[in-house]
C-alpha cells in the first residue's frame, strides 16, 4: 500500500471503511484514527460488492449476527444509511470479485 494513506498517529497503512451518519470514513485499523472522510453520497453510485456490519471497533472482526446487508453498494445504500442514521458506526468490508 502507498504510504499516503498511512496513519499519522501510529504509521500503520491498514484501513477500514466506516459509515457514520452521512459520512464515509477511512480509519486506521490499528488505532481508529480518521485518515480521510467524504460524504457517503459520493460512494453510492457503485456496483462494488460488500458486506456491511455494525462496527465492533478498530481492528476487530464483526460477528455474523452484526450483518446489516450484503451486495452491490448501490443496491444496499438505503439499508446502510438507515443503520447509520442514528450514529451507529457501520463497517463496509469489500467482497472479492467473482
Features:
98 residues, mainly beta, 6-stranded antiparallel sheet, 1 helix, globular
Structure report:
The chain is mainly β and 98 residues long. It is 12% helix and 36% strand. Strand 2 (23-28) and strand 3 (34-39) form a beta hairpin. The longest helix is centred in the C-terminal third of the chain and has 12 residues, at 73-84. It starts with 14 loop residues before the first strand and ends with a strand.
Please give the share of residues in helix. 10-25%
Uncertain ranges: none
Specify the overall morphology.
Answer: globular
Lateral arrangement of strands in the main beta sheet: 3-2-1-6-4-5
Strand tally:
6
Largest sheet: 6 strands, antiparallel
Query: Helices and strands: which structural class?
Result: mainly beta
Q: What string, H for helix and E for strand, traces the elements in order?
A: EEEEEHE
Q: Could you tell me the radius of gyration in angstroms? A: 13 Å
Q: Give the N-terminus to C-terminus distance in angstroms.
A: 23 Å
Number of H- or I-type helical stretches: 1
SSE blueprint and pairings:
Elements lengths: L14 E6 L2 E6 L5 E6 L9 E6 L12 E6 H12 L5 E5 L4
Antiparallel strand pairs: 1-2, 1-6, 2-3, 4-5, 4-6
Q: What is the gist of this entry?
A:
This protein has 98 residues and is mostly beta strands.
Amino acid at each position: 500500500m502507498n504510504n499516503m494513506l498511512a496513519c499519522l498517529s501510529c504509521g500503520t497503512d491498514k484501513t477500514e471503511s466506516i459509515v457514520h451518519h452521512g459520512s464515509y470514513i477511512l480509519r486506521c485499523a490499528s488505532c481508529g484514527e480518521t485518515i480521510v472522510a467524504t460524504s457517503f453520497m459520493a460512494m453510492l453510485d457503485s456496483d462494488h460488492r460488500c458486506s456491511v456490519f455494525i462496527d465492533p471497533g478498530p481492528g476487530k472482526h464483526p460477528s455474523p449476527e452484526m450483518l446489516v446487508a450484503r451486495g452491490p453498494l448501490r443496491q444496499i445504500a438505503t439499508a446502510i444509511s438507515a443503520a447509520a442514521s442514528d450514529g451507529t458506526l457501520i463497517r463496509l468490508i469489500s467482497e472479492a470479485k467473482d
